[in-house]
Amino acid sequence: MEYDMPASSTDVSIHGSRTETKKKQLKRWLQLLFQSKTGTVGAIITLIVCLVGIFAPQISPYTPDEINPAHMLVPPFWVEGGTSEHILGTDQMGRDIVSRIIYGTQISLLVGVCSVVLSGLIGLFIGLISGYYGKWIDIVSMRLVDAFLAIPNILFTLVVLGVVGPGVVTLIFVIGVTNWVSYARIVRGEVLSIKEREFVKAARTIGVSNRMIIMRHIFPNILSSFIVISTLTVATTILLEASLSFLGLGIQPPTVSWGGMLSDGRNYLATNWWLATFPGLAITFTVLGIIFLGDWLRDILDPHSQGRDL
User: Fold this and answer.
1) How far is CA 176 from CA 81, 111, 256, 304, in A?
2) SS3 assignment, position 281
3) Topology of the domain covering 100-269+277-305
4) Which residues contact 248 (CB under 8 A, 6 or more apart)?
5) How far apart are CA 252 and CA 260, in angstroms?
6) Span 267-296, mean pLDDT?
7) What 3-state class would DSSP assign to 232?
8) Is the per-residue pLDDT at 263 higher than 50?
9) Total-model pTM
10) What are φ and ψ of residue 179, in 5° steps?
11) Residue 306 — very low, low, confident or very high, per pLDDT cuts 50/70/90?
12) Helical axes 274-301 vs 37-54, angle rounded to 10°
């Protein structure tokens, strides 16, 4: 008969020590976040945007495609002719601006996060392999990077979307495939530096496999740079998605996007300014919030900036 061995006091002590260390680290991060004005503002804006996107069906007063001919082009509630039923007014088809902005948050976050995950995985893999193994792998990878850098991202994306056709999945795939270059270059540079350090050489000496060296010794040391660039890339991706939707090659109706709302409102700027103003403000504040958060993360995770006033 087998019996479960009781946990030793040493195991309990180690587990408790690790838990205490994690709590102290979390407390330190929160203290550093509140010490940074830009970091706090960025975190608050980013948190609000994420919550709005997640709970859009619950907090939206109307469905985004609900047409009401009796309330077309109603101004915001503080303008003469406005109503509290539509706080930020309605568009040329009587659709509520607030509801459309709320649902547009979902698309911006979906495209921004998913495309960054895709491009990050591609760039991380190529950067790790290229930097660690070098030789012909590095040569081929860097020539491929140079080829992508020679073509502007927006131009390449426009051409592909024009040929394949617009759509949410297509947009995520195209942006993800075109934005991996910056990840690959940064990761490769980090790997070239880290692989020459003593702990990596010692691991090779005792016979640790290349795969284990990459995963256990190199990857954890480049993770901070990867997180920072990923955060900042989400902001640029949201701008790219809005630009493509504004040009008619991004998110297509009836799906709501901030860029599409800007495109619909550009013909009404002189008379019905709110159609384009509020989606533009949503893009601006979201991008600024993510950039502020990314700058704070860079200051915290960059070892050269430790001890610097935030």
Assistant:
1) 45, 9, 21, 30
2) helix
3) MetI-like fold (1.10.3720)
4) 166, 263
5) 8
6) 91
7) helix
8) yes
9) 0.83
10) -100, 10
11) very low
12) 130
Query: Quick one: which of 182, 184, 33, 47 has its CA closest to 109?
Result: 47
Query: Distance (Å, rounded) from C-alpha 115 to C-alpha 233?
Result: 10
Tell me what percent of the chain is helix, strand and coil, each rounded to the nearest 5: 75, 0, 25
CA 88, CA 295: separation in Å to the nearest integer? Answer: 32
- In 8-86, alpha helices (H): 9-35, 37-54, 56-59
pLDDT digits (tens, 9 = 90+) for 242-253: 998 898 888 888
Q: Which two tokens stand for residue 59?
A: 């907090």
Give the separation between CA 118 and CA 125, rounded to whole angstroms.
11
Query: Phi and psi of 70, rounded to 5°?
Result: -75, -15
At residue 100, the pLDDT reads: 95
Q: Residue 34 — pLDDT band, cuts 50, 70, 90?
A: confident
Cα–Cα distances (Å) from 172 to 52, 83, 126, 197, in that order, read 21, 38, 20, 37
Structure-block tokens of residue 164 = 């394949």
How many Å apart are CA 27 and CA 231, to the nearest integer? Answer: 22
Residue 118: pLDDT above 80? Answer: yes
CA atoms within 13 A on the CB side of 19: 6
Domain ranges of the chain: 100-269+277-305
The pLDDT of residue 22: 61
The span from the CA of 223 to the CA of 45, in Å, is 24
Q: How confident is the model at residue 302 (pLDDT cuts 50, 70, 90)?
A: low
The amino acid present at 189, given as its one-letter code, is G
